């Protein structure tokens, strides 16, 4: 449990507020009406996804425990924000709600799984940023709305489409959609490999030199032995 529930809630809302700058600021500037509309679209999608993720997790936890779990609500909000970030400017608002709802479910499931297998992740960093981040990269390829929902948005920005050199739009046929999904899956695999290899190397070196702390829990016998001097005092 957190040492301060008010500070946890405050921190969540600070992150939520800052996320508007993270994604909305990527528009760059408001020199045209199109850019201003795009920034508004980004902000709306973020708000919807975060709210849907938070509410789903909050209601699910209440149904499971019959208690109001505010920390899970905060986690659901962050899960929604992570889930929408990959495709925040490329999907329509209904998809943003869908992304937040699925992200909330993924967060709950992965968080429970990590606790079940004994992984120490007190702030649910992997459940929120890892699992929901992978979900975001996958759905961004499937629901890229492009122009009129029949073309790929891609990296072009605004409501333009990802097109050929001739200026025509690249339609989202089966072959092109498959390429988008494969590219995003390859991106996930690359990120996992990069972070996994570097982490293994760094922590391996620390372990060799004895610089990692001992995270093995004390046995009951050891705890009793440690308490004896205090009891005698």
Annotate the secondary structure layout.
Blueprint: H1 5-24, H2 33-65, H3 70-85, H4 93-117, H5 125-142, H6 174-208, H7 220-232
Helix pairs in contact: 1-2, 1-3, 2-3, 2-4, 3-4, 3-5, 4-5, 5-6
Structural features, described:
This protein is mostly helical and 233 residues long. It has two domains: 7-159, Orthogonal Bundle (Ammonium transporter fold); 175-213. It is 69% helix and 0% strand. It is built from seven helices and no strands. It has helices at residues 5-24, 33-65, 70-85, 93-117, 125-142, 174-208, 220-232. The two termini are 31 Å apart.
> Strand-residue fraction?
under 5%
- Could you name the CATH topology of the largest domain? Ammonium transporter fold
Number of strands: 0
Structural classification: mainly alpha
Poorly predicted spans: 221-233
CATH class of the largest domain: Mainly Alpha
Give the overall form. Answer: globular
Looking at the chains present, what oligomeric state does this protein adopt? single chain
| Computed Rg | 22 Å
Helix content: 55-70%
Membrane topology: Multi-pass membrane protein
Keywords: Ammonia transport, Membrane, Transmembrane, Transmembrane helix, Transport
Protein name: Ammonium transporter AmtB-like domain-containing protein
Pfam families: Ammonium_transp
Short characterization:
It is a multi-pass membrane protein. The protein has 233 residues and is mainly alpha-helical.
Task: Output the keywords.
single chain; 233 residues; Ammonium transporter fold; disordered C terminus; ammonium channel activity
């Amino acid at each position: 449990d957190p040492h301060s529930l008010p500070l946890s809630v405050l921190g969540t809302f600070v992150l939520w507020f800052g996320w508007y700058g993270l994604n909305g600021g990527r528009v760059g500037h408001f020199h045209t009406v199109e850019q201003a509309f795009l920034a508004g679209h980004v902000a709306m999608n973020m708000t919807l996804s975060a709210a849907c993720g938070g509410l789903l997790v909050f209601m699910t936890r209440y149904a499971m425990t019959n208690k109001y779990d505010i920390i899970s609500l905060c986690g659901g909000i962050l899960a929604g924000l992570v889930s929408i970030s990959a495709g925040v400017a490329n999907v329509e608002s209904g998809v943003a709600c869908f992304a937040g709802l699925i992200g909330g479910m993924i967060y709950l499931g992965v968080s429970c799984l990590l606790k079940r297998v004994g992984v120490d992740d007190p702030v649910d960093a992997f459940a929120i940023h890892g699992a929901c981040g992978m979900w975001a990269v996958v759905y961004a390829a499937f629901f890229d709305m492009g122009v009129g929902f029949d073309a790929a948005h891609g990296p072009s920005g605004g409501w333009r489409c990802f097109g050929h050199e001739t200026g025509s739009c690249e339609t989202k046929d089966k072959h092109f959609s498959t390429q988008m999904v494969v590219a995003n899956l390859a991106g996930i695999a690359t990120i996992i490999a990069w972070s996994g290899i570097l982490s293994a190397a760094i922590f391996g070196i620390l372990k060799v030199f004895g610089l990692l702390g001992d995270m093995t829990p004390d046995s009951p016998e050891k705890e009793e032995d440690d308490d004896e001097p205090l009891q005698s005092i």
